[in-house]
């Protein structure tokens, strides 16, 4: 349905997107995961014809989008990361304004306005000025605008950034409904691991402008299938203890984690005795130990050497 091949964007000497190839099948929900600055927004701006790539190919149902942007524009909905609304207008007036840009009119326009306002849960507050809405409500109207013309595919660029948990949950459930019940194709960008795990069939992980891994959740976590994760909760932090753990030959990775440390070690390595011995030597009290199979967060850490939200 949508495919990019070696898509690249260079600003002067800075490479923002570096030869990214990606595809979406009809009805899929695909996640584009990466920290801030990974190149996600630049990448989707090129897909959405808002920005021309330095090089590479974008095709929509086999047709060249770069040469003819109007191939994809009528059937594409885009939810930008920044709120793109007129805050001195009401929610209804905003949606109607953008509906006219989509060339909707008359009864069809009025019907779609009420349908999308109901979908985002704001039909009862549609006459209120957007400037009086919470950040989460504004983001929901942002989504309503993108859905107004019944697109075949919707691109959502970090739609839950900086909003309250209730609105975040509402948006995630809405995206799930659009994809699973209405069959809409979704490209969802985020730096929240749990969001793409919850919503997406396949995941692309981006870092420094490149795709560094792709696959289903199970395929990605299988990268560390021979490892396990040990969470240590300690009574205090200690750089000396952390460095001592890193020097252990069978400890593959050590990072700070909430109240302690996270270690990635080979499965069945029986490292606990050594860990407790090191802790005793460093006068560190271990309050709890939890051993788990690696998560997507662990995979990202393994591939990039840093946590997703660093």
TrEMBL record:
The keyword Transport applies. It is a peripheral membrane protein. The keyword Manganese does not apply. SUPFAM superfamilies: P-loop containing nucleoside triphosphate hydrolases (SSF52540). Residues 2-233 form the ABC transporter domain. NCBIfam families: drrA. Keywords: ATP-binding, Nucleotide-binding, Transport. It is found in: Cell membrane. Belongs to the ABC transporter superfamily. Drug exporter-1 (DrugE1) (TC 3.A.1.105) family. This is ATP-binding cassette domain-containing protein. The lineage of its organism: Bacteria, Bacillati, Bacillota, Bacilli, Bacillales. One of its GO terms (molecular function) is ATP binding. Transmembrane segments: none annotated. It comes from the Bacteria. InterPro entries: AAA+_ATPase, ABC_transporter-like_ATP-bd, ABC_transporter-like_CS, DrrA, DrrA1/2-like_C, P-loop_NTPase. It holds the Pfam family ABC_tran. PANTHER family: LINEARMYCIN RESISTANCE ATP-BINDING PROTEIN LNRL.
């Amino acid at each position: 349905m949508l495919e990019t091949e070696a898509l690249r964007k260079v600003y002067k000497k800075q490479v923002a997107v570096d030869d990214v190839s990606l595809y979406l099948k009809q009805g899929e929900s695909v996640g584009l995961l990466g920290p801030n600055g990974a190149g996600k927004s630049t990448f989707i701006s090129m897909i959405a014809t808002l920005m021309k790539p330095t090089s590479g190919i974008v095709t929509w149902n086999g047709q060249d989008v770069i040469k003819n942007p109007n191939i994809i524009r009528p059937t594409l909905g885009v939810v930008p990361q920044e709120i793109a609304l007129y805050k001195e207008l009401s929610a209804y007036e905003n949606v109607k304004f953008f509906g006219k840009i989509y060339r909707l009119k008359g009864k069809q326009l009025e019907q779609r306005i009420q349908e999308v306002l109901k979908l985002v849960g704001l039909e009862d507050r549609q006459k209120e000025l957007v400037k009086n809405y919470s950040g989460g409500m504004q983001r929901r109207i942002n989504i309503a605008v993108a859905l107004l013309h019944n697109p075949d595919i919707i691109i959502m660029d970090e739609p839950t950034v900086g909003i309250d948990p209730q609105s975040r949950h509402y948006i995630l459930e809405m995206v799930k409904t659009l994809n699973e019940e209405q069959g809409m194709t979704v490209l969802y960008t985020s730096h929240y691991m749990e969001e793409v795990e919850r919503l997406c069939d396949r995941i692309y992980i981006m870092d420094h402008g490149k795709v560094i891994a792709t696959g289903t959740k199970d395929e990605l976590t299988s990268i560390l299938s021979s490892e396990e994760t040990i969470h240590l909760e300690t009574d205090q932090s200690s750089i000396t203890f952390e460095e001592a753990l890193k020097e252990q030959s069978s400890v593959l990775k050590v990072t700070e984690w909430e109240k302690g440390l996270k270690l990635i070690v080979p499965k069945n390595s029986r490292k606990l005795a050594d860990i407790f011995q090191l802790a005793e030597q460093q006068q560190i009290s271990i309050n709890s130990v939890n051993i788990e199979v690696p998560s997507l967060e662990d995979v990202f850490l393994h591939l990039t050497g840093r946590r997703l939200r660093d």
